[in-house]
């Protein structure tokens, strides 16, 4: 399938840098800790049914689903309102939305849509907080919800405008991180695995007893990379070490992860980057930790005359690896809340979601997509069929969760030490 819009040209940024620091509220980590403690004595957040009553602000997880409350001073918009005149302001990572789906929305509603981009989460949240630019829609990771809702930076949704939410996988119609989808709708799903070039890596990586071991192979020194996302990279080290809690606050587990990172650095001196989608096909890398969407995009960066058949991607067949998803959320400071709801509905339309998939390479969780048919339908080449994301994996996979501030700080400490020596 010819990819609409041509190859991506992305900034070298981490699309999924997880917001686990004080950037959201613009304060120091100690002050944030105090704030979260204060939240435990207030009705800011709740688990289960979402009532207040002084319950502690909870960190959502599949075992601890949370339905965030809707406060009296941050209510959904009313039913049946006419859309504003725009322009609609989107705030997203560079090249993470297809121009054609944006243009079709503009044509349908007779408005302009402007896409602004950011280089990292700190920059994005700082601008959102200041309100200097009244962005309407933000594209975060699911684990940012707790703090976005706490700070009332996002607007609760009125589902009467978003009928296409019924098109997505059932798990995302009332997800564990946002029960009843009060504040978010899904945008994309992806796995994290290992990508490689068969002409530079002779090993059958997928056939190894522990495929993660290939990244520690000293034969590939200077040709290895890990994702420049502290939690994603460290979670992979944890899984390779036999740990199953990729959000652990146990000192022994973190020590094991730190040792794994040290061994990795000593063995291969890995590149720490988010440009694997370009560096792997260009031959600067032979093997890399990768997101499924980026290995799909890698085919468009191969040198002229180089067959896509040299690319491979491994993710555990049983789904017991890292799977994640990104969201669309309406910001409370935007000037076009009705139009923003209609845009979310537009992106959840089956045809628009598939067209966007063809551009960004990241799969939407649409019921209409038969994961087993993505190769036949032209979305994936045969040799990258393993980059397809299966719905059932979200029941068994490991998720990167928000962490308590003290645990978050320890993980960051280990990561910064690794990067300093990488």
Automatic annotation (TrEMBL):
GO biological-process terms attached to the record? polyamine transport
Q: State the organism named in the record.
A: Nocardioides islandensis
Q: Give the matching CDD domains.
A: PBP2_PotD_PotF_like
Coarse class of the protein's main subcellular location: periplasm
**Protein's name according to its UniProt entry:** Spermidine/putrescine ABC transporter substrate-binding protein
Pfam families given for it? SBP_bac_8
Q: Which domain of life is it from?
A: Bacteria
Any idea which GO molecular function terms this record carries? polyamine binding
According to its UniProt record, where is this protein located? Periplasm
**InterPro entries found in the cross-reference section:** SBP, Sperm_putr-bd
Gene Ontology cellular component annotations, sorted alphabetically: periplasmic space
User: Keyword set for this entry?
Assistant: Periplasm, Signal, Transport
Keyword presence, Transport:
yes
């Amino acid at each position: 399938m010819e990819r609409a819009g041509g190859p991506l040209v992305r900034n070298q940024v981490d699309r999924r840098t997880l917001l686990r620091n004080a950037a959201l509220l613009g304060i120091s980590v100690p002050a944030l800790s105090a704030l979260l403690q204060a939240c435990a004595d207030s009705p800011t957040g709740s688990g289960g049914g979402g009532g207040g009553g002084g319950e502690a602000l909870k960190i959502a997880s599949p075992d601890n689903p949370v339905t965030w409350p809707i406060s009296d001073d941050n209510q959904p918009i009313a039913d049946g309102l006419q859309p504003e005149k725009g322009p609609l302001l989107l705030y997203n990572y560079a090249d993470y939305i297809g121009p054609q789906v944006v243009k079709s929305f503009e044509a349908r509603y007779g408005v302009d849509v402007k896409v602004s981009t950011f280089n990292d989460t700190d920059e994005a949240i700082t601008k959102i907080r200041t309100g200097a630019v009244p962005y309407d829609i933000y594209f975060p990771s699911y684990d940012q919800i707790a703090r976005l809702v706490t700070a009332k930076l996002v607007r609760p949704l009125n589902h009467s405008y978003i009928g296409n939410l019924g098109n997505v996988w059932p798990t995302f119609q009332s997800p564990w991180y946002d029960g009843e989808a009060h504040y978010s709708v899904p945008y994309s799903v992806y796995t994290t695995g290992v990508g490689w070039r068969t002409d530079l890596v002779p090993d059958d990586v997928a056939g190894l007893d522990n495929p993660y071991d290939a990244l520690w192979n000293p034969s590939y020194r200077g040709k290895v990379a890990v994702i420049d996302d502290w939690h994603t990279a460290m979670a992979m080290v944890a899984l390779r070490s036999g740990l199953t809690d990729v959000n652990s606050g146990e000192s022994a587990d973190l020590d094991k992860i730190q040792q794994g990172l040290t061994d990795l650095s000593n063995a291969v001196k890995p590149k720490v980057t988010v440009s694997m989608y370009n560096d792997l096909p260009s031959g600067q890398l032979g093997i890399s930790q990768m997101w499924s969407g980026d290995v799909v995009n890698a085919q468009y960066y191969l040198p002229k005359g180089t067959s896509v058949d040299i690319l491979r991607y491994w993710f555990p067949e049983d789904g017991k690896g890292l799977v994640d998803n990104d969201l669309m959320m309406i910001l409370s400071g935007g000037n076009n809340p009705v139009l923003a709801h209609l845009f979310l509905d537009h992106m959840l339309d089956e045809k628009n979601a598939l067209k966007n998939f063809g551009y960004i390479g990241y799969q939407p969780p649409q019921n209409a997509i038969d994961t087993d048919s993505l190769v036949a339908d032209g979305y994936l080449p045969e040799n990258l069929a393993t980059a397809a994301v299966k719905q059932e994996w979200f029941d068994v996979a490991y998720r990167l969760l928000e962490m308590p501030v003290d645990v978050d700080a320890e993980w960051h400490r280990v990561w910064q030490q690794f990067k300093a020596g990488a």
